From TrEMBL:
Species this chain originates from: Colwellia demingiae
Residues in RRM domain copies: 1-78
InterPro entries linked to this entry: Nucleotide-bd_a/b_plait_sf (IPR012677), RBD_domain_sf (IPR035979), RBM (IPR050441), RRM_dom (IPR000504)
Record PANTHER family: TRANSFORMER-2 SEX-DETERMINING PROTEIN-RELATED (PTHR48034)
Protein name: RNA-binding protein
MF GO annotations: RNA binding
Amino acid sequence: MKLLVRNLSRSTTEQELRILFSAHGTVAECSLVLDQATAKSKGFAFVEMPNEAEAKVALSSLHETRVAKNKIRVKIAQ
């Protein structure tokens, strides 16, 4: 299941996201979306979790939690 993570701090790294979501299950892929011109984070990312049950637990556990002072939003990617 592919999850969209929004409202990330510009300083949050892919590794930090991977660790955050790995606490709830296996993370197959984690990709932070970067601005082409500046190579800085755009404040959102996609996290792919192969096990749907683990992904749903991660979604419910992490949605609207604070990460680096920002309240992140997690939802199923369309």
